[in-house]
Amino acid sequence: MKRQVLLILVLVLLVLAIPAQAQEEITVWLTGSDTDATILQEASAAWTAESGIAVNVEAVPWSDSYTRSLTAINSGVGADVIIGGMSWGISLGNLGGLTELSDTFGEDTEALLAVNNQAFVDATIGVDGAQYAIPYSQDVHIMYYSTAAFEEAGIESAPATWEEFTAALDALEEAGLGGGAYGWGNASWLSFIGILNQAGGSFYNEDCSAVTINSDEGLEALEFYTLLFEEYGFPAEQADPASAFSTGEYSIVISGEWHASGIDASFPELEDQWSVATLPAGPSGSSAAFLGGRMAGIFSYSTNQEAAFDFLEWVATPEAAEALAAATFENGGIFLPAQPENGQFIQGSAEFNEALNTQLADVVGPPPCPGWEESQSEVDLIIQSVLFEGYGFEDALLDIEDLLNEALVEYGS
């Protein structure tokens, strides 16, 4: 009897000594707010229930996220997935810090990319063709306008071309009403790149082998962009559509989609007094708008590669898009799925949804070219010297061309 008791005690101790098998878990660093992270955390519960893999989503501020990613890459310790700036996939991937998805997951990567906005996908592929990231969420320029001001000025519809746009600004001025402004990326390459594409121009050619900004199309774009600031009083400061329409300071604001959810909430008197439209088309016939957003990639040191990629595949599903869009809207924001088929889940009025999806079909992302990331601030300074200091158009285009060519040589290898 004593031997039996002793044997039982030994077996119990052995069982207690064996650690319980932990549930598999992936950690996601989400560049953004705590609210953004909470929304993804709660939405991913559906994936956890299906896969059996837990998700830990941590919010990382924009000001710290890239540096934190570099530290993780150098130490080999950190999250499994990084969700961050649109172009980070190229820069972090080129350092060896992110997994090359096509090599690792093959046809599954191609299938995943195929359902996403092609303009976004193009912006994540460097000149070597490597694919280190997939789209997570989008941000896009769209035109907000005061329907009340338009009616008072006798403007019957949202301007659809450059000519109609300047005519609308003239009519608003004649009526003593506020004109236009940018609310995101004003007086910088970020808002200029849309106009550049509307004119039929670009900063680089398609394979990033040559700088193409110094062209007739580039000149026409820079002249029109400058006209908005010099002749039509576009301000150097960013404008908020809600407050601009409430005070009457501006009647048109070109900015990101995220403002839409808060206009009526912040200024109830503006309900039914504003609307949105695509940007006006330029000489090329395009109404291209700047496309930004967040990419998602897998750190190369992660030991949970398969689980991380399965999670990225889930993010692109209708189930995930619907959950993320609904929860973001409830928290006062707009979530733009990166998959055209999931555009149906964008929250807001039918009119807003239609305009946004139409604009998302005509967009341009940041150039995925060597040296572009490092040259952006200097490009902005050159553009601003034209807008506010009277610097010559041709000289500015030549300066940008020289700057970007030097960067291609320095960073191209």
Record keyword descriptors for this entry.
10 strands; D-Maltodextrin-Binding Protein, domain 2; alpha/beta; 413 residues; globular; 19 helices; 2 domains
CATH class of the largest domain: Alpha Beta
Total domain modules: 2
| Structural class designation | alpha/beta
Q: Tell me the major beta sheet.
A: 10 strands, mixed
Distance between the termini: 78 Å
Structure description:
- The protein has helices at 2-17, 34-43, 45-51, 62-75, 88-94, 101-105, 107-114, 118-123, 147-153, 162-174, 189-198, 216-230, 241-247, 263-266, 305-315, 318-330, 350-360, 372-389, 393-411, and strands spanning 25-31, 54-60, 81-85, 134-146, 179-182, 250-256, 274-277, 289-298, 336-337, 363-364.
- It is of the alpha/beta class and 413 residues long.
- The chain is 49% helix and 15% strand.
- The radius of gyration is 25 Å and the shape is globular.
- The termini are far apart.
- Strands 1, 2, 3, 4, 5, 6, 7, 8, 9 and 10 form a ten-stranded mixed β-sheet that branches.
- The chain has two domains: 25-139 and 291-360, Periplasmic binding protein-like II (D-Maltodextrin-Binding Protein, domain 2, 3-Layer(aba) Sandwich), CATH 3.40.190.10; 140-290 and 367-411, D-Maltodextrin-Binding Protein, domain 2 (3-Layer(aba) Sandwich), CATH 3.40.190.
- The model is unreliable at 5-22 (pLDDT under 50).
- It has 19 helices and ten strands.
- Helix 2 (34-43) runs antiparallel to helix 16, helix 11 (189-198) packs across helix 12 (216-230) and helix 12 packs across helix 18.
- The longest helix is centred in the last third of the chain and has 19 residues, at 393-411.
